[in-house]
Fold:
Amino acid sequence: MRNRELAFLIMVGVLTAVGFASVYIARQDVISTSSLTYAGFFFALYVAAHLVTRYTVPFADPYLLPIAGLLTAIGLTEIYRLRPGDAFRQGVWIVVGVSLFSATLFVLRRDYRRLETYKYLFGFTAIGLLLLPILPVLGKTVNGARLWIQFGSLRFQPGELAKIMLIVFLAGYMREKREVLAQGRLKDWGPLLVIWVLAMLVLLETKDLGGGLLYFGIFLAMLYVATARIGYVAVGLGLFLIGAVGVWKVTPHVQDRVTIWLHPWTEHKVYCPTADSFTLRQNCQSFQLVKSLYSIGNGQFGGTGLGKGTFTTTSGAQIIPDLNTDFIYSALAQELGLIGVAALLLVYMIFVLRGIRTSLLAQDGFSKLAAAGLTFGFALQTFIIVGGILRLIPLTGITLPFVSYGGSSVVANFLLLAVLLLISNRANREVLR
Amino acid sequence: MMVSDSVAVDELLLVLKIAFLVLLYLFIWRIVRTASRDLRLPQESFVLAPSAAVGVQASRPGPLTGRLVVVKSADLADGEDFELNSAQLTIGRGNQNDVPIATDEYASVRHARFEPRQDGVWVQDLGSTNGTFLNGTRLDRPRRLTQGDIVRVGETDLRYES
Structure:
């Protein structure tokens, strides 16, 4: 298994080298030669991670780590192409992510199931983390959502970590109570609903719509896995729709998002709040989305090639705001084309398939639920951001796992990967025995 | 930069672009090929429905079962027994355990686990403070039980009967 992992990692290494070479050649005027060492360094980092998995989780799924490697490689290449300065920081975050990944594997290699013992701690820590950005000194509002905490120059989005903790809590709680949950007595639902309502209130307060959708989706999926009651999912979706309409009615921020989604282009001038004047909507509120759609369109089928896309005006100003975080998918769609991003989505799908397989093979309820929750969260997050960029659903800012620029996201996804590998290691070992 | 140079650069970039895409799809293809073999393996339900679980159990040979009989305990009556059928059984001072021994001060909150598997019933220490003993030997890894084995948790002794 581990040899297979190494073989795939070598492929990822070659891919990274090709990607960086392409960016380097296309943008010689902007970039220095030392850039090529990135690819080498990157490969060395993953070989180190591979050695850790060899020692700690010898039976774990051999595809998950190379896929994470591939996704971070594609992300890093694109970030490097867009803003070389950010690529260095992203590289540092990947190193931090891989270190925490290794540390998690070492600490929990004997029995990760003791996580279950601390489920309430995880649940309340998650709520605490979600609350942190609301605090007046630490919190920071970016693009209408209050999701960040800031210490000096270091910014962090605690919601990403809270997601994983919440999944661990839900897995532990639902494992213990699944029979009674299936019967549907209110008493047993209490703790679940309390933490639930708290999380939702926090999200409403921080105006993190994508996060709200993500947590709710994870909750419903895990509830279904635990109880096998499709009725709960139907009720949950119904409640979600009612809640969404309610939030839409009272929150101008949400109304804006929906308007942008349904009518990004206008023929007549409409009021533009940021400029306080009348202008076409595509030049104001939906500017980002519309330019991103043009960017995707410009990529056509085969893409412009890495390093050759158009992301700046002739004067050098960047066209799309947040291109390397939330909108990295549209940058990739331009440079790799439909064929390239289709491959990217396939890679995400394989990751999800392997996660579901892990959940299927796991022997105990906690592992099954945790693997299912983590995998579903990963899939839904990808769907929310890619769907938002492609105008399938209203756009909400959320990161593309492993690819987007952003420290908290990268670190959290590596932790997610570590837990999945631990579950997979145990499940496969039992199957082999 | 001369015109011929930029043409050469463009060609090189085209080659690199194609190489990148080919490698990307090769990666996917290789994974799908090697992984599709073991995707067919898992037959157990994804959903944890009790009813579904029963169905799965019935179609397989099923794990071996047995029971645990209390030999000596401060908390439980001597001779009381616990069925080991398909589910795991945990023992410890916490009341969320399947076998709660609240008054045994030498037991940890989650002390040990009994797990019926295809090849027999296994006992595993869950990182307890004072350890779990099988016939007087402290467990350092999961062990398979045989008829008449005595498992000691804190000050509680249990006998395994298949």
Remarks:
- Chain B is about 30% helix and 30% strand.
- The first strand of chain B starts at residue 66 and ends at 72.
- Chain B touches chain A through 39 residues (CB under 8 Å).
